[in-house]
DNA sequence: TATGCGTGGGC
DNA sequence: TGCCCAAGCAT
């Protein structure tokens, strides 16, 4: 598509954005100076996570660690606990690692170019482009799931994802302006969240409907095309609640893998069939509660039997945590659910 | 390119 | 209810 025939998307989109932009705690108001730390933190929190979930967590986080330097000086344990419940815990480890690299090697400031950002842990193509555009005003082609959807519809790109990424990015490049690139990126995302939604898009309200190939064809919901997903397998396991006095035994999970680096209740192997008391953390008079914990992860679902026992013996692994302060332990959701079951049934 | 990695809301 | 989806990254 040569320049003469390019449709000007940026002008009506930015005009729409100036009238409808959302007021979000990490977003500088018109005339305010953007804070790269806040932009970066918001982008990481928002990866695969909704604005409604992130908003209060962002406020709490920035109150506790207002700057790069504050975060770089924090301990890994407290950072992981502060992330509990947000999911994708590698994000928290990478966030801290990047903050420490910035403090040690970049004079306490985020680098302001895409390639330099891309080299930091936790920065992929999307986040590097988004921070370069939003925090530093650089022209960058910012493609997230919203932009994929909007662009796939604008140009009626019918290649199934993920192969569609390349043509979508090329098309996004043709409509990205040289100025206000950060606003343009945020406008595309606001449009995707409010107007160009996955189901029942509000095309009558869309500032780009005159230029949209999918809307012209009457089939906006058909885009983007996706390959069918594999069914999620179902697994079983056992989770151990070992109590000594008023405290329960917690472990820290290995850094890599599922729920990596997070505090947890001990669990046995997770497999096709219930393993019951395999891998119990102690010899004890275990009792299996009649209500299991059910939980869905991205790629499998699981039923966990809850085994409960009391002991007087010390344990050489893990930590004994007061049961009445368990909400301060920073447990991932599956273990917080288990604690609820024990409270009700044990 | 495919897979592993959480969680909560919408329908 | 169960499935879909979301401001992706690492390997």
From TrEMBL:
Coiled coil regions, renumbered to chain: none
Cleaved signal peptide residues: none
Molecular function terms, GO-annotated: hydrolase activity, acting on glycosyl bonds
Cofactor needs: [4Fe-4S] cluster
Keywords of this entry: 4Fe-4S, DNA damage, DNA repair, Glycosidase, Hydrolase, Iron, Iron-sulfur, Metal-binding
Gene3D superfamilies: Helix-hairpin-Helix base-excision DNA repair enzymes (C-terminal), Hypothetical protein, domain 2, Nucleoside Triphosphate Pyrophosphohydrolase
Record-stated family: Belongs to the Nth/MutY family.
Protein name according to UniProt: Adenine DNA glycosylase
Organism of this sequence: Sphingomonas endophytica
């Amino acid at each position: 598509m040569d320049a003469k025939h390019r449709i000007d998307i940026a002008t009506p989109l930015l005009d729409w954005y100036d009238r409808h932009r959302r007021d979000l705690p990490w977003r500088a108001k018109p005339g305010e100076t953007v804070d790269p730390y806040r932009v970066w933190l918001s982008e990481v929190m928002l990866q695969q996570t909704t604005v409604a979930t992130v908003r209060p967590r962002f406020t709490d986080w920035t109150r506790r660690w207002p700057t790069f330097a504050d975060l770089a000086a924090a301990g890994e344990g407290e950072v992981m606990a502060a992330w509990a419940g947000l999911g994708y815990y590698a994000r928290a480890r990478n966030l801290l690692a990047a903050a420490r690299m910035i403090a040690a090697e970049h004079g306490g400031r985020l680098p302001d170019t895409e390639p330099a950002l891309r080299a930091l842990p936790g920065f992929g193509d999307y986040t590097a482009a988004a921070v370069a555009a939003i925090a530093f005003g650089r022209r960058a082609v910012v493609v997230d799931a919203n932009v994929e959807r909007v662009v796939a519809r604008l140009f009626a790109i019918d290649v199934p994802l993920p192969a569609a990424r390349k043509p979508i990015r090329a098309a996004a490049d043709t409509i990205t302006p040289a100025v206000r690139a950060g606003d343009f990126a945020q406008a595309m995302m606001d449009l995707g969240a409010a107007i160009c939604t996955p189901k029942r898009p509000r095309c009558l309200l869309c500032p780009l409907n005159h230029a949209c190939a999918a809307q012209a064809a009457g089939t906006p919901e058909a885009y983007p095309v996706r390959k069918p997903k594999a069914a999620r397998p179902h697994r079983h396991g056992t989770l151990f609640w070992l109590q000594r006095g008023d405290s329960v035994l917690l472990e820290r999970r290995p850094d890599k893998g599922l729920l990596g680096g997070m505090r947890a209740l001990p669990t046995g192997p997770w497999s096709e069939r219930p393993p019951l008391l395999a891998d119990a953390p102690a010899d004890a008079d275990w009792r299996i509660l009649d209500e299991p914990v059910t939980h869905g992860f991205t790629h499998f679902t699981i039923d966990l039997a809850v085994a409960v026992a009391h002991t007087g013996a010390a344990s050489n692994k893990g930590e004994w945590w007061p049961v009445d302060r368990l909400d301060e332990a920073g447990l991932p959701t599956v273990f917080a659910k288990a604690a609820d079951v024990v409270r009700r049934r044990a």
